[in-house]
């Protein structure tokens, strides 16, 4: 049996790991946007794992090991994608989880993505009348420069309008926000649909494989494939029904 001292250590570690449990459940969900929450969640864990003067030796060792492992996993993630997703979430668009130079870099990336979208827009239909280009070569160069500057100004205005929007609460759904404000931020809404729809992890898919492993056992190895599909779907539907109730 553990001693009273060991039980005290375990209680302190349990309180620390409660933050990890909360983040794991937050990132492993499938009923809400999770991709844009990754960086704020990691920033929260980094603050929790900071060593303080009151920490005993075992707590310092645990925090150091945990922080080192978390930094190693960050190197294998697509940080650029996560930063863009975070900036497109109206709950985290202030980017407080990043440093000021990193915030400038993120908005530069978003600006480049908007410029790329503008270039990839489909051409005008054949029945639409377009003005004839100027014949003078100097006028051609000036017109090209003018259109490029207008495009940059327009994209900058799109970014500034989005930044000026008030930050939403944590309980609000970012996809519902974009659905409501799509008319005012058409270009930004296209990026938001692409980035916010990406799941943070493959946990929901792995759960389905785990359910299938429980259904198909040695004593039920003769199940037909369609029956396995029905049992897996029923299990998933019953869980959702209980969650709603």
Describe this structure in words.
This protein is mainly alpha-helical. It folds into three domains: 76 residues; 101 residues, no CATH class; 42 residues. Helix content is 66%, strand content 0%. The chain contains ten helices and no strands. The longest helix is centred in the middle third of the chain and has 28 residues. About 2% of the residues have low confidence.
Q: Indicate the percent of residues in helices.
A: 55-70%
Termini, distance in Å?
41 Å
Radius of gyration: 25 Å
Specify the overall morphology: flat
Query: What share of the residues does DSSP label as strand, in percent?
Result: under 5%
């Amino acid at each position: 049996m553990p001693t009273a001292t060991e039980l005290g250590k375990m209680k302190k570690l349990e309180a620390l790991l409660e933050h990890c449990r909360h983040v794991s459940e937050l990132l492993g969900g499938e009923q809400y946007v999770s991709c844009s929450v990754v960086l704020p969640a990691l920033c929260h864990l980094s603050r929790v794992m900071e060593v303080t003067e009151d920490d005993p030796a075992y707590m310092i060792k645990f925090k150091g090991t945990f922080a080192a492992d978390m930094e190693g996993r960050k190197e294998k993630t697509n940080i650029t994608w996560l930063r863009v997703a975070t900036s497109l979430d109206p709950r985290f668009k202030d980017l407080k989880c990043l440093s000021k130079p990193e915030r400038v870099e993120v908005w530069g990336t978003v600006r480049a993505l908007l410029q790329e979208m503008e270039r990839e827009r489909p051409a005008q239909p054949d029945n639409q009348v377009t003005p004839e280009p100027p014949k003078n070569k100097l006028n051609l160069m000036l017109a090209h420069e003018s259109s490029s500057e207008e495009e940059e100004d327009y994209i900058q205005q799109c970014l500034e309008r989005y930044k000026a929007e008030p930050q939403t609460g944590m309980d609000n759904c970012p996809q519902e926000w974009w659905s409501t404000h799509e008319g005012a931020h058409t270009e930004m809404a296209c990026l938001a649909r692409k980035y916010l729809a990406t799941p943070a992890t493959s946990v929901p898919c792995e759960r389905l494989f785990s359910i299938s492993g429980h259904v198909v056992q040695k004593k039920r190895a003769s199940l037909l494939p369609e029956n396995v599909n029905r049992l897996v779907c029923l299990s998933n539907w019953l869980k959702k029904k209980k969650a709603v109730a």
